Automatic annotation (TrEMBL):
The organism's taxonomic lineage, starting at the top: Bacteria, Bacillati, Actinomycetota, Actinomycetes, Micrococcales
Protein name, as recorded: Methionine import ATP-binding protein MetN
Single GO BP term: amino acid transport
Domain of life the protein comes from: Bacteria
Pfam families xref list: ABC_tran (PF00005), NIL (PF09383)
Species of provenance: Ornithinimicrobium tianjinense
Key words, A-Z: Amino-acid transport, ATP-binding, Cell membrane, Membrane, Nucleotide-binding, Translocase, Transport
UniProt GO MF annotations: ATP binding; ATP hydrolysis activity
Amino acid sequence: MITLDTVGKTFPATRRQAAVTALEDVSLTVERGQVMGVVGPSGSGKSTLARIVNLLERPTTGTVTVDGLDLTALTSARALNDARRGIGMIFQQFNLLDSRTALANVELPLELAGVGRAERRARAGELLERVGLGDKLGSHPSQLSGGQRQRVAIARALAPRPKVLLCDEATSALDPVSTASVLALVRTLTDELDLTTLLITHEMDVVKRVCDHVTLLEHGRVVDSGALGDVVARPESPLATRLLPHPGPPSDDRAVEVVVGGDSPDTVLTDLIRRYDVHVTVLGGAVETLGGQRFGRLQLRVDGAPDEVRGALDHLAAHQRPTTETAA
């Protein structure tokens, strides 16, 4: 649905500043229905990437394809505007018009597209009801909380029925309770409306709560990317321990470290003990919910007859995302 192929962006030199390369050789793909989180420190190029996806910034090199359409090949303002109607965007600071009610703010993109008053009003009312603000149609932004304003912004982004939703630090200005509810809403809308969502954030907790896939940017380059479950299973991944903390050095010379996911770690260990005549001791570890699934990075000691121990370890290797083995 979204494909960036070897995208680069260099801002030209000015009198006060040398040329700046914000992105370099960035390639990534977000499939239909996925929520992709893009994380990285300040200045890593995250917001530039978001603006390039809908060509608010034109890349210096590379191509941007959304829903099969090469946006970088579009040259007329009309063609770009038509393409952008398929890409909704929400921002950190909401960007609502204070002079307009919640209903009128959501109507705005439809009004600009020439949609008739009755149709756009019905659509805006339906969306505000969907985001939980059916009783706030006549409220102005100053009368709403931060979380409510972001819900209005989400409804506005969805008004033209886009296929893609871009979220640029959309929860950074919110308190923890509002952050959780807005992220849950984004996940629900992505699933129910078959959206493809690109979520720009510097907070790893945001990725853990709502994303299926994650990409790490550093100095304008992709340094790691993948499904959350695959990322945490790679010991060399710079994202792995940020998503799922490492339990530390083995406390036993017979320790084995595994990453288990898809089921509760307790269920995995119970199944292991039922299948094999072994005793399993948990020496340390961490358990996190990532993208709605439970994952654990555990240090285990497996004791028993050599054949049973080997069978148990092979079972983990085949089914439960092993990372490293320090002893058998």
